[in-house]
């Protein structure tokens, strides 16, 4: 067995077996007009499943109107969207892969992508734990306790709907500065009630959210939580400065019922803290005992936000870098993390997993921004 074969050994999240260790990273594509993903979106995911990817994590799907990014993303709270998602699930299952929707609430943080004024929805005001952005500016209204309960109920309803439709689990978007992260981070959570305070107290929203999703969808329905240090508008931001701070935040969250953590970094191999080589996914696995998914620049020369500027539209192009395949395999082999998520390289290469499996990485295509203009 060569080192790369470990990528094609089965993975497990809770009770769910996944055919291999390769996940498609969640990527907002904005092709769901009216909030409803059409047959083109279903075919796009089915192509990645047919291309050998074991677990598809969909683009972020909004759990309610206040939390919906303003572009044409799937609005998971609409009945017609749920009906359309059945076709996505069926297509991916037919191709032999597993699929989870990413459940998304932006909180007070609007998305950095450009919004076509034609698509801006009439929606309620943005809401967050303290109404504040990481910069200290006001970004929206403060959620009161009733608002918190209603938001948690919206996530729970979405979890239940995901199960009914046939999804294999859910991923909750708790990363990049969106609503759950806004509760966890001291700069955006200044509350003095039971939802704010020290690191452990700031976890209450996420703990209740996970418990509510488990109660609604059933204890055996897998929940992945995506987390990160960085925020969409601040790559230097850190939720935890030390491993013990990371533990204070994520141990209670793991105990609430998370089945796996998806640890979002821009470069999968980088150590998370000084004085240790462990990556963020490595630390999270060590602290929580749960499986972890790593991500960031897999088979790409440039990270996701490399050289970000108005002119480049925020998302970096990149040539392929094939040596990453062995590096990822060796991390998995030594138990640093369990799965790897592939983002832009899987937009450029629907057959990414098949090419890796057949040792044809020299055929990997570069990621180009123009690929975002179509759903190939
Ligand atoms: C077009 C695009 C859209 C994205 N949308 C989301 C999203 O909806 N949810 C999310 O958690 N991350 C999103 N991301 C981040 C990716 O999931 C991934 O973490 C990032 O691209 C780094 O992986 P890569 O270097 O393999 O591309 C997006 C990335 C891209 C390129």
Quick recap of the structure?
With 376 residues, this protein is α/β, with parallel strands linked by helices. It has helices spanning 39-50, 79-94, 145-165, 179-184, 204-217, 243-255, 280-288, 324-333, 344-348, 352-357, and strands at residues 11-13, 16-18, 22-24, 55-62, 98-104, 127-128, 141-142, 170-173, 223-228, 260-264, 292-295, 339-342. It has an eight-stranded parallel β-barrel with strand order 3-4-5-8-9-10-11-12, surrounded by five helices. Strands 1-2 form a two-stranded antiparallel ribbon. A two-stranded parallel sheet has the order 6-7.
Tell me what the structure shows.
It is a single chain. The chain is an alpha/beta fold. It has a single domain, classed as TIM Barrel (Alpha-Beta Barrel). 30% of the residues lie in helices and 14% in strands. An eight-stranded parallel beta barrel has the order 3-4-5-8-9-10-11-12, surrounded by five helices. Strands 1-2 form a two-stranded antiparallel sheet. A two-stranded parallel sheet has the order 6-7. Helix 6 links the parallel strand 9 and strand 10 (260-264). The structure holds flavin mononucleotide. Flavin mononucleotide (FMN) is lined by residues 25-28, 59-60, 102, 173, 175-176, 226, 264, 295-298, 300, 303-304, 315, 342-345, 372.
């Amino acid at each position: 067995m060569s080192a790369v074969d470990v990528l094609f050994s089965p993975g497990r999240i809770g009770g769910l077996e996944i055919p291999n260790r390769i996940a498609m990273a969640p990527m907002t594509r904005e092709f769901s007009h009216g909030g409803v993903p059409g047959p083109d979106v279903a075919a796009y995911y089915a192509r990645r499943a047919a291309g050998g990817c074991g677990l598809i994590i969909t683009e972020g799907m909004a759990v309610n109107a206040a939390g919906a990014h303003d572009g044409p993303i799937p609005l998971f709270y609409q009945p017609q969207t749920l009906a359309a998602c059945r076709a996505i699930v069926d297509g991916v299952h037919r191709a032999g892969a597993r699929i989870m929707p990413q459940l998304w609430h932006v909180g007070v943080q609007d998305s950095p992508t450009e919004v076509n004024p034609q698509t801006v929805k009439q929606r309620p005001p943005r809401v967050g734990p303290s109404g504040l952005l990481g910069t200290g500016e006001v970004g929206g209204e403060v959620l009161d306790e009733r608002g918190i309960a209603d938001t948690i109920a919206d996530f729970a309803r979405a979890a239940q709907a995901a199960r009914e439709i046939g999804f294999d689990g859910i991923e909750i978007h708790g990363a990049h500065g969106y609503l759950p992260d806004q509760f966890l981070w001291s700069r955006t959570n200044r509350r003095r009630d039971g939802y704010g305070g020290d690191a452990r107290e700031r976890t209450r929203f996420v703990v209740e959210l996970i418990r509510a999703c488990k109660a609604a969808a059933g204890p055996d329905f897998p929940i992945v939580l995506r987390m990160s240090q960085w925020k969409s508008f601040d790559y230097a931001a850190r939720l935890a400065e030390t491993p013990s701070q990371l533990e204070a935040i994520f141990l209670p969250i793991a105990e609430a019922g998370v089945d796996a953590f998806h640890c979002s970094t821009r470069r999968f191999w980088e150590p998370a803290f000084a004085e240790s080589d462990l990556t963020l996914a490595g630390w999270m696995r060590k602290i929580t005992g749960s499986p972890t998914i790593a991500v960031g620049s897999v088979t790409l020369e440039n990270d996701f936000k490399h050289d970000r500027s108005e002119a480049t539209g925020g998302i970096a192009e990149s040539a392929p870098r094939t040596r990453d395949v062995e590096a990822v395999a060796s991390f998995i082999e030594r138990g640093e993390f369990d799965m790897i998520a592939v983002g832009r390289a899987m937009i450029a290469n629907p057959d990414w997993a098949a090419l890796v499996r057949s040792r044809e990485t020299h055929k990997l295509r570069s990621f180009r921004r123009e690929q975002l203009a179509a759903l190939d």
